Amino acid sequence: MSKPVMSVDPMNLDEVTEDQSVLEDGDVAIIEPGPEVTEAGPTKPRADDYEAMKSLVFTDDPNLEVEEECIFHWDIVNWKKMDRKSHSPVFRCGDSPWKILFFPYGNNCECASLYLEQGYADKPPEDWYKCVQFGLVLWNPNDPTHFVHHQAHHRFTAEEGDWGFTRFIELRELLLTNDKRPRPLIENDCSRVTAYVRIIKDPTGVLWHNFINYDSKKTTGYVGLKNQGATCYLNSLLQSLYFTNSFRKAVFKIPTQNENLSNSALTLQRLFYQLQTHSDAVSTLELTKSFGWDTQDIFAQQDIQELNRVLMENLENKMKGTDVDKFLNDMFVGKAKTYIRCTNVDYTSERVEDYWDIQLNVRGMKNLDDSFKDYVRVEMMDGENKYSAEGYGLQDAEKGIIFKSFPDVLHLHLKRFEYDFATYSLQKVNDHFEFPEVFDASPYLSEDAEGRDANWEYVLTGVLVHSGDINAGHYYAFLRPEKDGAFLKFDDDRVTKATKHDAIEDNFGGDYEYGKLQNGQRNTVKRSMNAYMLIYVRKTKIDEILVPITEEDIPPHVPQKFEEERLIREQERKEREERHLYLNVKMVTNNHFGHYQGFDLTNWDEKDTLAAEEAKPVTFRFKKAAKIRELIQAIAEMPEVNVDPRLVRLWVMVNRQNKTIRPDQPLLDHEKTVEEMQIKNSSKSNDFRVWVEIQNIDPAKLDDPSVTPEKEHSSDPRMCIFLKHFDPTAQTLLGVTHVYVRKKDRVHDLLLPQISKMMNWPESPKQAEIQLFEEIKPSMIDQIKPKQTFESAEIQDGDIICFQKTPTVQEAQALRERGLPTTAIEFYSYMTDLIKVKLLPKVSGAGRELTLILNKKMTYDDVSERVAKQLDVPPTHLQFRQAHNQSSAPKAPLKRAQHGNLAAMLSVHNYYGPLPPAPNMLYYEILEISLAELETKRMFKFTWLPDGISKEEACETLVPKTGTMSDLIPYLVKRYNLDTEQEQRIRFFTAHGGKFQKELGRDYTVLQQDYNYVYAELVPEDELHFDPETSKLIEAFHFHKEPSKTHSTAVPFKFVVKKDEVFADTKLRLQTRTGIKGKPFEKIQFAIVRRKSYSQPEYLNDEDILYNMVDPADDYLGLDHFDKNTRSNGYGRSTGEIRIK
Predict the structure, then answer these.
(1) CATH class of the domain defined by 829-928
(2) For a designed S-S bond to 475, which of 232, 795, 1028, 1135 qualifies (C-beta 3.0 to 4.6 A apart)?
(3) SS (H, E, C) 105-158
């Protein structure tokens, strides 16, 4: 028996000496066996001191709000007589019933098991759940100083209605006594269980959620984006742009109705449409494919700020000339003024520039206002750092930046990643940094800013968060879709409700406390999750920015295309489900036979590229359970047949041992099913292949019993054979018809008159004028002797006889001179070597794509003649290349001497293992000179630098084998339209190991060039006016972290260092010299690198004067930054540049 009690006598308890570790096992929390029993001490609670016990079992969390709590006692009596599975009486906490589930002898273990369980008699209401903190205490009411307790929290649902502790206490511990515990937990077969239950409010609806069967759309009204690998950063940015409603509306206005899925504007429209209408998470695969991203890009985590800039630039180009031209500039772009103002003379240097976002320091800053104050802080240029003012010399000056305007949507990027000069690497900055829900930007506007007195308050609508460190991390976003709405958390494919605290305070970063109090203090650790990008919308513009999006805003072609795709998928699904009910029927008629040039009646291979379209079999699906008469009816109604069904007779096609496919016998039992006949006449093919015979009978006489079928049953039945005609003059071999013959008939006597009649030849031909051949198999064509019967010639149903007129001596001679077959036997042999070849121009757009049927035995020159005739170019100026097996890219040119015929030109040799079959494809190039002249030249490859070192263009041109670098100049002048002055400035140099090697004079011979990189560039203006009295010329190279880790493919360069120039100004010239702009340039750390081995880089500050610090003979200028050609190999941050095509 057992009964509930609500109070006991108070007693003193000792301190709990050891916390219990909680594991998870299925639906319950498991407590590891150990010293379970807690003994009270002078300052520790007793089991009957319920308020003190609450403090023991509950850990207060300031982020959790208590809704209800209660204490319930259950007196256990007659322990030994309890059922294996027992329940306490039901008690209530809040608006829900609860009970204790007890296994006194263990739940499949040697421990007593205790759980808290929902107490509904039947089942909880629909969608019922409660978030509960609870603790269970087992104690002896006669001695409250001894007890065992465990605590847990759980989200109770209808599916997970109980939770607790399978190994609450070992059974042997229940009756154990010792010096410290004179009385056991079970005494007189009785004990007591106290349940402490605390129901926690769940404002977001996902507290302690396991997210099994979680529906984002149902819960929040929105859907997430699927993560392809490491695209969480992309997902966060896309969601933030999607909820910038006016941006979404502008994207929908980009004309894309005539574009395909390679257009990123169209795929972005489709993505936004799916986010707006779909019920499940949306894939970004279409979008990233349109970006031109591959697997490497998908698994390389990039920087959100850089991605945003690249995406905006791409969309800005696509919006040009449309109704939304300049829209992005109006919404996202502000203006900032950089100035240097002399304090003692009247001189000011100013530059106003556009910005898409603002990067703010985090380290050393308390909040957003501190960062803005730091951003616009005035820097003094004095002492050794004086400013060189034009016309005034070195002057004390103030240097700073001030904002001329802020955009309607303000993107703030917090510098959570900084370069650490101690470790020479990027590090994550997890410092505490506060940002407000409403931000006033007016203090940071210049006094002469337009609208200076207007309201410049901004409302926080988005917080993009980075969790992790520099090597591995994850992005997610807190966004406010509606003006006065709540924040939602967008974490890839999952969208959940969030509190304002979750979105703002929880992402300040800094330290957070965890665990229980130890000596009055809690343990602290740096938060690895913190805000990385903030999105503010100007308060006065928020209604325009968050304008509602309706169906009318969506371009009609977008949902229309999705509906078409849905119908196609539905049809494909239906076909898959019904596929087992159907089989493929392939049929051929005499019409197909008459257009077919090849072996057999037709080529049943769907991949055949030589057969004319009119010769290919008709393929259709037909029900397996249908009768043969139904199949005949369906075929008779087809446009290819269109006759009375009674005239149609089907012959089943079979694979013969000689590897031919011929009609075998007619299908006379029309009540059999199609599947039965397919199985009965099964062959290696899964298709049901038939020849459709149209019987030569007057339809009016079909019911006349006196009409004898063409294939009757007798001692000498008729056979059905097929006739082909070889025309030596036209060089064709085509089917003619089928005829019925008897075995005893002589072949020539019967066929020659019929053939003459069909072909309108003289009626009584001589046997010598017409030759007959039997097509036995592709490699065996036998001539039929004049006096042979069909039986002696072993002719049977389905055999093919080929006939031709014997050419005259003069005709035969003319054919041989042209290298053409004169007999059917020769032509059959010729056909075995026919192949369809695709010919593509080596450079896309530099010629037409050709598809020619050629013979494998054709020589290189023969192929050139055929191709040249199609292109109307001299055959001597054509050069061919093979296609790569896997990529189909053009390979090295084919040499005419080594590739004597077409078979050799198409063959692929591999010394390292088997390759897939080579495609029948060649690339052609129309040369400016003949192949003979080409042999006297060599191809020279080099790289042209049109804009500093930021852009590289591969060049290759033919030069004489004894030529010099000057022979490259005409090519550059013509290709890049260089004028005379620019032609004189062309210079060539080589690089090795990422460093400048030597400059090549114009008389340098091309044969001397080794395997180093060769570059060509225009000598910069600084070098043209180089003054050795006031300047130095230093070599520069790229490295990452350590000077020994050079960028092997980056372009080194020479740079002019000017006297008295501070490095802040030097960097401006470096930006011009390199052509690197924006964030890639900002990421570069500049350093002096000594030429001696193992030297450490000496990093430069803006106030340094480089001229005074370097000796070009001993030093390099080093550019320390990530190698743009290096990719991440996991889920960490990528070092590659972001590209969107």
Answers:
(1) alpha beta
(2) 232
(3) CCCCCCEEEEEEEECCCCCCCCCCEEEEEEEEEEEECCEEEEEEEEEEEEEEEC
- Copy the structure tokens of residue 972: 């550059």
- Closest listed residue to residue 643, CA positions, set 655, 634, 630, 656: 634
Given the candidates 2.60.210.10, 2.40.10.220, 3.40.50.10810, 3.30.9.10, the CATH classification of the domain at 50-200 is 2.60.210.10
Which amino acid appears at position 103 of this protein?
F
- The answer to whether 134 touches 116, Cβ cutoff 8 Å, is yes
- Please indicate whether residue 1141 or residue 1097 has the higher confidence score (pLDDT): 1097
Rounded mean pLDDT of the chain?
86
Active-site residue, selected from the candidate residues 474, 592, 877, 1038: 474
Q: Whole-angstrom Cα distance, residue 595 to residue 611?
A: 9
Cα within 13 Å of Cα(921), Cβ side? 17
- CB 195 within 8 Å of CB 134: yes
Question: Which ranges in the chain are annotated with CATH 2.60.210.10?
Answer: 50-200
Domain(s) of CATH 3.10.20.90: residues in the chain: 829-928, 966-1120
Confidence bin at 1087 (pLDDT 50/70/90): very high
Per-residue pLDDT tens over the stretch 724-734: 999 999 989 99
pLDDT band of residue 43 (cuts 50, 70, 90) is low
Residue in 1017, 995, 999, 994 with CA at minimum distance from that of residue 1073: 1017
Residue whose C-alpha is closest to residue 1122's, from 1037, 1036, 1040: 1040
Q: How far apart are CA 501 and CA 508, in angstroms?
A: 10
Q: How far apart are CA 533 and CA 414, in angstroms?
A: 6
Asked if 232 is an active-site residue, the reply is: yes
Q: Are 88 and 74 in contact (CB under 8 A)?
A: yes
Which among 44, 267, 293, 277 is positioned nearest to 147, based on CA atoms? 44
**Contact between 156 and 129 (Cβ < 8 Å):** yes
Domain 216-328 has CATH 3.90.70.10: yes
| Statement: 966-1120 belongs to CATH 3.40.50.720 | no
Looking at the chain, the number of H-run helices and the number of E-run strands are: 28, 57
Whether 580 is catalytic: no
